[in-house]
Every structure is written in structure tokens, then in C-alpha cells.
Amino acid sequence: LELIETRIQLLKAAWDLHKFLCDCQDVLDRIAEKAGAIPEDVGRDAKAVAVLQRKHAAYESELTRLGQQVEEVVDFANTLLPSYAGDKESIICDHRDEVVQAWRQLQYAAEQRKVHLLDASDVHKFFAMVRELQ
User: Fold this and answer.
1) What 3-state DSSP class applies to 70?
2) Taking the model in full, what pTM does it have?
3) Who's near 96: CB < 8 A, 6+ residues apart?
4) Of 32, 108, 40, 95, the residue nearest 66 (C-alpha)
5) pLDDT for 73
6) Are 71 and 1 in contact (CB under 8 A)?
7) What value does the CA radius of gyration of the chain take, rounded to a whole number of Å?
8) Which of 19, 46, 69, 91 could serve as 124's disulfide partner, Cβ 3.0–4.6 Å?
9) Are 33 and 44 in contact (CB under 8 A)?
10) pLDDT at 91
11) DSSP state, 68?
12) 21 vs 7, 18, 24, 44, CA distance in Å?
């Protein structure tokens, strides 16, 4: 009976580790998908820039849910760490850090996109004022 309990605990631990690694891969895939969805275009005129800014605001709201998933992965990793040592501990830490790094890079790219769109909007507003003055 004691051997069965030990086996159940080992299986649960293996299941938790497997689930964590799958969750990490899923989140990394979603981050890569979102990173690839950031366009380079900043708009040819003020209307196009306004449309792109609205699309970017929607994109940022989608990132909120992804951010929650990143937090869940980090929390799960922190829950698993006390149960493991050695190689498995380093695997958990490496995957957690990889997810956090990818998330930070995505956040930086989204922020840069927002700044570029604001700059483009300012340029088009400036050009509009210049045209009015002529």
C-alpha cells in the first residue's frame, strides 16, 4: 500500500512537470504568434494612422490575457520548484526564464509600435498645420 502511494506521488509530480513544460511551450508559441503579428506600417496619412492606432489598442488588450497566462506559468513554476532539485530544477527555471524573457521582448516591441504610431500621428498633424498656414 505504501508503494502504491509513493508511485501515485511520483506520477503526480511527473504529470505536474509535464503540464508545466507543455504550458510553457504553449505560451511561447502564443508570444511568437503575437510578435509576428506586429506590422511595420505606420500609415500614409492621419486617417490611416488613426486606424492603425485603434488596431494597436485592440492588440494591446489581447496581450493582457497573454500576460495573465505568463503570470500563471511563473506561479506554477514557483509552486513546482520546492519539489525538485538538480537537473529538473534547472529545467523549470530555464523554461520559466525563457517565457519571461519572451514576454518582456513582446511588451517592448508593442510599446515601440505604440511610440512609432504616436510619432507618425504627430508628423501628420504637423503637416496638416503647415498646409493650413500656407
Assistant:
1) helix
2) 0.87
3) 24, 73, 74, 77, 78
4) 32
5) 96
6) no
7) 23
8) 46
9) no
10) 94
11) H
12) 21, 5, 5, 44
Helix-, strand-, coil-residue percentages of the chain, each rounded to 5: 90, 0, 10
What are the grid coordinates assigned to 121, written together? 500621428
Residues 22 and 15 sit within 8 Å (Cβ to Cβ): no
Q: Exposed, middle or buried: residue 69 (CB in 10 Å: 0-12, 13-18, 19+)?
A: middle
Q: Angle of helix 2-36 relative to helix 87-133, nearest 10 degrees?
A: 20
What are the angstrom distances between the C-alpha of 93 and each of 9, 63, 66, 107, 111? 22, 23, 20, 21, 27
Give 49: exposed, middle or buried? Use CB within 10 Å, 0-12, 13-18, 19+.
buried
Residue pLDDT, tens place only, 81-123: 988 888 999 999 999 999 999 999 999 999 999 999 999 999 9
Q: What is the pLDDT of residue 83?
A: 85
* Model confidence pLDDT, tens digit, residues 27-86: 999 999 999 999 888 888 889 999 999 999 999 999 999 999 999 999 999 999 988 888
Select the more confidently predicted residue: 134 or 3.
3
